[in-house]
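Course exercise 7: structure representation. Students receive a sequence record and must write out the corresponding structure in token form. The form below is the worked example handed out in class, using glycerol-1-phosphatase (300 residues). Read each field label carefully; the graders check that inputs and outputs are placed in the correct fields and that the protein name is recorded exactly as given.

STUDENT ID: A-19
EXERCISE PROTEIN: glycerol-1-phosphatase
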Amino acid sequence: MDALEVGSSSNSMLRLCQRLAFPNPIAPPPRSSVHSSSSSSKNYPFLRTSPEISRLHFAMANPSQAVSSKGPITHVIFDMDGLLLDTEKFYTEVQEIILARYNKTFDWSLKAKMMGKKAIEASRVFVEETGISDTLTAEDFLVEREAKLQSMFPTSELMPGASRLIRHLHEKGIPFALATGSHKRHFELKTQRHGELFSLMHHVVLGDDPEVKQGKPSPDIFLAAAKRFEGAPIDPKKILVFEDAPAGVLAAKNAGMSVVMVPDPRLDSCFYDIADQVLKSLLDLNPNDWGLPPFENPAS
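STUDENT ANSWER:
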């Protein structure tokens, strides 16, 4: 089946998911096989308006299914929140507390719109979508949320498989970097207990980096990360991004890169379709799928 030949009911669900997570509709990838990617970092095809979106590789049920035709991968870029560090729960908890004052609830359709974005961009989504912008500005929301998060971030735990994958890539000499929407102060708090592991990154690009003009789903942060590898420019088709958020997946595709999505199980599965591969956990990754050196020992 051609990548664009999906049923009308599937298209309707995909369009609904797009409207839930992104104010502007998302365009389909170029007409090609489901395992190829010709996205251009100059054209940002996934940011253009279109009534449909194609169905790409889905591998949650069988994460070892080969997608090697996209490789071989030579460089890797990681997101951080919800992918390497279990920090998304902190944002959820604080936002639930704030909304409770207005007799409103925080659900995953709203969270999907906020995940991966810069703080101020996510804050605007929060106050506008919940209808509280007349009584709480995005800026005031950030101040209140910040005060509550300060004590939570230093307790951040690693997500399953994060340490194993990072150390494996480091041992095998695969260059990898971090591209996170978190700004410097939050990054330092979140990684406080994991400094040694994060020091293995070739470089780190933060949300308040001068080169990151727009947050995800704009490709800015991934393009900035790619430029800082030794030997740059790196062909984006040789870069693999790991993400958990719909906006982050789109950002990676807009940069012309392949992307493995490791979503929270509560995220609606209709958001999976743009990713090249979807895993339940980093522990399920088979590096061979991407032409990367295999793990020497099975996941435990």
